[in-house]
Amino acid sequence: MSAPMALGIFSVIAVGLADAYFLGQVSGAALAAVGFIYPVITALTSLSIGLSAGANAALSQKVGAGSNKEDVQRLALHATGLGCMLSVVLATAVWLAFPVAFGALGAKEDVAKEVAEYMPLWSLSLPFLVVMMVTNSVFRAHGDGATSAAIMIVAAFFGIALNPIFIFGWGPIPEMGTAGAAMSTLIGRVVAVGIALWIAWQRGLLGVCGNVLTGVFASARTILKVGLPAAMSNAINPAGMALVTAAVATVGDDAVAGFGAAGRVQSILLVPLMALSAGIGPVVGQNWGAKETERAQSATVWAFGFSLAYGAAIALVLALFATPIAGLLAASESDQEYAASYLRIVGVTLFGYGMVVIVNAAMNARDKAVWSMSLSLGRIFAVYLPLAWIGVVVFGYMGIVVAAALANLFGAAAAVFAARRTSLLSFDKISSAIPAQRPG
C-alpha cells in the first residue's frame, strides 16, 4: 500500500518544487509569493485529505466486514458527490477572500500582485483535486494503492510538463508568469480526475445501484464523522505554518524565502512517512472492520519503528549535507543559510512529525478522528505557534527553528499516548516485535 503511494506523494510535491524553480526565474517577488502561497493552499487541500480519510474509513471497514457490493458502490458514489459539492463551496469562498487573507499574512505590493495572479486559477482547480483524492481513497479502501498513486503521478506530470510553457509562453500560448503555474496545475487535475472516475466506474468501484439517493444522508454522516475532524486535523499544520510564516516575515524576505525552501526540502524528506500514513489507513480500517484488532496494533508498532529508523537516517544526512541540499532550492546565499540552519536542527526531530501523521491516519481509519484533530491542534497551537512567536522576538529566526524542533518532539510523545488510549498500540505488541535474545 505504501510503496506506490510514495511515488504518488512525491509527484504531488514535485509540482510545488517545479513551481518554485520556474517562478524563481521570473522574479524574486514571484518566488517570495510561493513562500506565502504554499502553506495556505496546503491548508485548503486539507478538505480533500479529510474527505478521503472519511471515505477510506467508511469504505475500508465495510470491505473488511464483507458488506454487500452494491452498498459499498453506493457509499463510494456518495463520497465522491459530497466531495464535489463541498469543494465548490470552499473554492468560491477562497476566490473571494484570498486578497484579504494574504494581506493579513504580510504579503505586500509586488508579492501580493503575484499571489493575485496565482490564486483565482488555483481556486478553480480545487474541486477537481478533491474529487480526485476522494476517488483515490476508493481505490485504497479496496487495497489498491498502485492505481491511486498512478492517478497522482498523471496529475503531477501534466502540472510539471506544462509549467514552463504557460509561465514563459510558447508558440501561440502567451507568457502568463505566476498565473501560468496555476494553469498547468488546473489542467493536470482535470485530466487526472477524468481518468480516475473512468477507471473506478469500469472496475465497478463506483456505480448507480438502484435508487442512487438511498441512504445518502446516512453516508454523509458516516463520512463527515471522520472527514470533518480529519480535514481540520490536516488543516491545522499548514494553517499553523502560515501563521509561523508571518512570524518569519518579521525577520525579512530572505528569511521567508529560506524558510519556504526548507519547507519544500522537508516535504520531500517526509514522503516515505506520508506514504506510510496513506498505507496504514486501509490496513487498520479493514482489520478493524474484520475484528482483527491485533493486526492493526502490529501495523502501528512497525510504522512507528520505521519512523524512528528513517528519522535517524535523515538526521545524519542533513547534519552532513544541509547546506548543499538547501542550495538546490534557495535563490541566494542568504536564503540558503536560513534554509540550512532549519534543516540541520529540525531534521533531528522529523521522526516525531512522522509518528504524528501515522497515528492520525490510523485513528481516522478506526473512527477516532477527534483524537487525531486534538493531537494536531495541541502540537501546533499549544507548542509550535506560541514558541515560534516568543522565539522570534527573543532570538530572531533561530527561535522559530528551535520551536519547530520542540513541536516535533512533543508530537512524538503525544502520538504514543494517543495510540495507547485508542487501542492502536499495545506494549505487548512492541515486546513481541523485538526478537528475543538467546541466553548466553
Structural summary, described in words:
With 440 residues, this protein is mostly helical. Helix content is 84%, strand content 0%. It is built from 17 helices and no strands. Helix 2 packs antiparallel against helix 9 (216-249) and helix 3 packs antiparallel against helix 4 (69-105). The protein is globular, with a radius of gyration of 21 Å. The two termini are 40 Å apart. Residues 436-440 have low confidence and may be disordered.
Secondary structure layout:
Layout: H1 2-24, H2 28-44, H3 46-64, H4 69-105, H5 109-141, H6 145-161, H7 163-168, H8 178-202, H9 216-249, H10 253-269, H11 271-289, H12 293-327, H13 333-346, H14 350-365, H15 369-395, H16 397-421, H17 427-433
Helix pairs in contact: 1-2, 1-6, 1-11, 2-5, 2-9, 2-10, 3-4, 3-5, 3-9, 3-11, 4-5, 4-9, 5-6, 5-8, 6-8, 9-15, 10-13, 11-12, 11-14, 12-13, 12-14, 13-16, 14-15, 14-16, 15-16
Summarize the structure.
This protein is mostly helical.
Task: Output the keywords.
single chain, 440 residues, mainly alpha, 17 helices, 84% helix, globular, disordered C terminus
